[in-house]
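User: Let's play a game. I give you a shape written as tokens, and you guess the letters that built it. Ready? Here's round one.
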């Protein structure tokens, strides 16, 4: 049984498996962010994911599998490109959109003809999937539109009142090492398109496929990713330099607002790893404004910039409605 007084957080894989098989929800550690998983073939369990997250029903869920040889029934007509990327990047932070197979429920794909599939690299998630055998539908384990979780404590903070001890669980696998969600590549279009930036960038995918890959190099275009997302309660202000950030904090302070700078431009890998913990910490401190120095737009820096742009979007909206 879970050892913690909250009755949810556990490191017991057997317990997690039992909860999933009996239709419960289990938050799982992955190398990107924590996911809120359910057996993808149990419609009631999948429906609860949307309820607990407060997520619109037509936003599709990624199906997590143990590896390339576990795609049977989830995807059909798996193209050579998927075999190449799966054999080089999986298990890892890459989601591929493929033609959906008969096991992929409408509730999971949002009725789309495609299904997103990913094999996570976190050893606990991987072992869980190998033992589970099927597919786990899992979005990030946060409330819809809010900051993603990279620790079990983040999940507990966000979902404690919504998950049920005795029915659900939060599997604690330590902090996520990548820190931003998987790269999403659509392999159903020619050339393939990167819809969401992640640790594996479009250039790397292009190299692996020995062919060009379309990279929107802007806001993510995966469905459900267009609006403000990853939003903390404080305003997020984006700047391109430490000087500009300091200046902005000065302006905020003079106006009586509590602001601070977040600058992790010295190490973009750490910037990604810590991104969501940093946004959450700003709220815990009660900051009015977090002024962020953006990392360079290369590699995982593109993913960090994408998430920060979305985190800032709600503030832009809130400020312009306040100005109206
Ligand atoms: O790293 C990740 O991908 C994490 C971990 C838990 O695996 N999962 C994750 O899931 O970020 P979620 O639901 O927060 O984001 C998945 C995005 C959503 O914007 C969803 O709309 C899109 O992927 N998506 C999933 N399946 C799709 C499909 N068939 N077509 C288009 N977009 C899809
Ligand atoms: Mg998410």
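Assistant: Ready! My guess for every position:
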């Amino acid at each position: 049984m879970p050892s913690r007084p909250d009755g949810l957080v556990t490191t017991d894989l057997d317990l997690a498996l039992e909860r999933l098989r009996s239709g419960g929800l289990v938050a799982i550690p992955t190398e990107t962010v924590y996911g809120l998983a359910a057996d993808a073939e149990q419609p009631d369990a999948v429906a609860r994911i949307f309820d607990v997250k407060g997520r619109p029903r037509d936003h599709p869920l990624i199906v997590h599998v143990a590896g390339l040889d576990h795609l049977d029934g989830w995807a059909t007509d798996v193209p050579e490109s998927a075999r190449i990327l799966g054999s080089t990047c999986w298990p890892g932070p890459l989601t591929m959109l493929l033609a959906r197979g008969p096991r992929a429920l409408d509730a999971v794909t949002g009725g789309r003809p495609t299904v997103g599939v990913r094999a996570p690299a976190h050893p606990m998630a991987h072992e869980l999937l190998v033992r589970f055998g099927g597919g786990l539908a899992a979005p990030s384990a946060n409330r819809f539109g809010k900051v993603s979780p990279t620790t079990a404590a983040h999940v507990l903070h966000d979902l404690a009142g919504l998950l049920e001890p005795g029915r659900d669980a939060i599997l604690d696998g330590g902090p996520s090492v990548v820190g931003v969600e998987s790269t999403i590549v659509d392999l159903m279009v020619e050339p393939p398109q990167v819809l969401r930036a992640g640790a594996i960038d479009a250039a790397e995918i292009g190299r692996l496929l020995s062919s060009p890959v379309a990279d929107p190099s802007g806001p993510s275009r995966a469905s459900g990713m267009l609006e403000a997302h990853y939003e903390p309660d404080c305003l997020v202000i984006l700047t391109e330099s430490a000087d500009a950030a300091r200046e902005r904090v000065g302006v905020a302070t003079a106006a009586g607002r509590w602001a601070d700078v977040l600058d992790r431009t010295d190490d973009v890998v750490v910037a990604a790893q810590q991104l969501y913990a940093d946004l959450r910490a700003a709220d815990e401190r009660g900051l009015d404004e977090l002024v962020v120095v953006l990392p360079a737009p290369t590699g995982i820096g593109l993913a960090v910039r994408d998430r920060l742009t979305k985190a800032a979007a709600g503030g832009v909206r809130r400020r312009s409605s306040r100005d109206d």
